[in-house]
């Protein structure tokens, strides 16, 4: 998504490094965000994409949109996601749009509130997508409460 040059001032001068923010997804309900630093751009990109693949989450996609509203905050950034009718398209900032497109969501309305820091907005979007529950999961959760032999695992 972005590659930035960052510097650290030390006794001998400035130490240059590159920071890469990568969003990884398959367009079918799996998306992850990775952030890494390295002395070279290719190494930073490789490390960030590997981190994004390690942190993939499952996103419930219903008719190319999300099942319900979601609001999440990360740092000073807050992201609101609302489902939209088919054909409405995606109304979102560049950062939120990238995360949602790679998750396979095509119709959604979003609003970024608070800080516009790309890293925090991307992570707030991931938190909002993590909080989404599909109808099947919600129905399964209520039936699990009646059956104590099965334990609901939120990491599925």
Please provide a written account of the structure.
The chain has 156 residues and is α+β, with helices and mostly antiparallel strands. The chain has a single domain, classed as Ribosomal Protein S5, domain 2 (2-Layer Sandwich), CATH 3.30.230.10. The protein contains 4 helices and 8 strands. Helix 2 runs parallel beside helix 3. The longest helix has 14 residues, at 41-54.
In short:
This protein is α+β, with helices and mostly antiparallel strands.
Q: Based on the structure given, which CATH architecture is correct?
A: 2-Layer Sandwich
CATH class: Alpha Beta
Total helical elements:
4
Largest sheet descriptor: 4 strands, antiparallel
**Count of the separate structural domains:** 1
Do you know the CATH topology?
Ribosomal Protein S5, domain 2
Instruction: List low-pLDDT spans.
Output: 143-156
Helix content: 25-40%
SSE string, helices as H and strands as E: EEEHEEEEHEHH
- Between the first and last Cα atoms, what is the distance in angstroms? 27 Å
* Beta-strand segment tally: 8
